[in-house]
Specification:
Elements (H helix, E strand, L loop, with lengths): L1 E3 L10 H9 L14 H12 L6 E6 L2 H8 L5 E7 L10 H6 L11 E6 L2 E6 L5 H5 L4 H9 L4 E2 L17 E6 L7 H11 L2 E5 L6 H4 L1 H12 L1
Parallel strand pairs: 1-2, 2-3, 3-7, 7-8
Antiparallel strand pairs: 4-5, 5-6
Helix pairs in contact: 1-9, 2-3
Keywords: Hydrolase
Protein name: Alpha/beta hydrolase
Organism: Kribbella capetownensis
Length: 225
């Protein structure tokens, strides 16, 4: 199992899922995604996947879903799981996809812009973003997440995706109906278009892998069979 976290996060966002998968006998790799943009992150993760022998299930949360699609042609990949995630097609940008449907509350008013000589990064305002990302997790847990967040290159949301995940690969999409970061309507649209088996989690937030790791684990293990 290869678990790819989303923007602003790190591999610890999969902790509840990772521990359950390991308990059930699965080998898990949850690498730190550089968050430097789709092409750059895909290149790095291709190198990571090359070190992992055998069949692989790729799992992506949020921004990580775009990376799953880009990496889907990698040798040994047997299925794909998208968790509250983007499922873009070639030529699309994540920013455009997220603005197609109403419901996302992530915008300039909750985002801090970090400018530096090498580019522009985005970070979430820790005083505002908690209820948007994780309304169903304890506020203290959300505050810890935001205190340790990793900024993402702004270009990640305007950079065009190069690959569409192969139609023949089995796909699963976990859709939290209370998601305020990516609109559930957008997630349903992308999942249907990709031919993914949809699993809706009633009332769950964007951080569904944190609030309901058991449900997410069940879907991943289903994809592994």
């Amino acid at each position: 199992m290869v678990l790819l976290h989303g923007a602003y996060a790190d591999g610890s966002s999969w902790s509840g899922v990772t521990s359950r998968l390991q308990h059930d006998g699965y080998k898990v790799v949850a690498p730190a995604v550089p968050l430097r943009g789709i092409a750059s992150d895909t290149s790095y993760l291709s190198g990571v996947l090359a070190t992992i022998p055998g069949p692989k299930v790729l799992v992506g949360h949020s921004y990580g879903g775009a990376l799953v699609s880009e990496l889907a042609d990698t040798s040994g990949v047997k299925s794909l799981v998208y968790v509250a995630a983007f499922i873009p097609q070639a030529g699309e940008t994540l920013g455009a996809l997220n603005s197609q449907f109403p419901g996302s509350e992530l915008g300039p008013d909750v985002t801090n812009v970090i400018s530096y000589p090498g580019g522009v990064d985005l970070a979430l305002n820790p005083d505002k973003a908690g209820p948007i990302l994780g309304a169903d997790i304890p506020p203290r847990e959300g505050a810890v997440f935001l205190a340790a967040q990793r900024p993402v290159a702004a270009a990640a949301f305007s950079e065009s995706v190069e690959e569409t995940a192969p139609a023949a690969l089995p796909k699963y999409a976990v859709i939290p109906t209370g998601d305020k970061a990516i609109a559930p309507a957008a997630e349903r649209f992308m999942a249907t278009r990709a031919g993914a088996t949809k699993v809706e989690v009633s009332g769950a937030s964007h951080l569904v892998a944190v609030s309901q790791p058991g449900v997410v684990t069940q879907v991943i293990e289903r994809a592994a069979r």
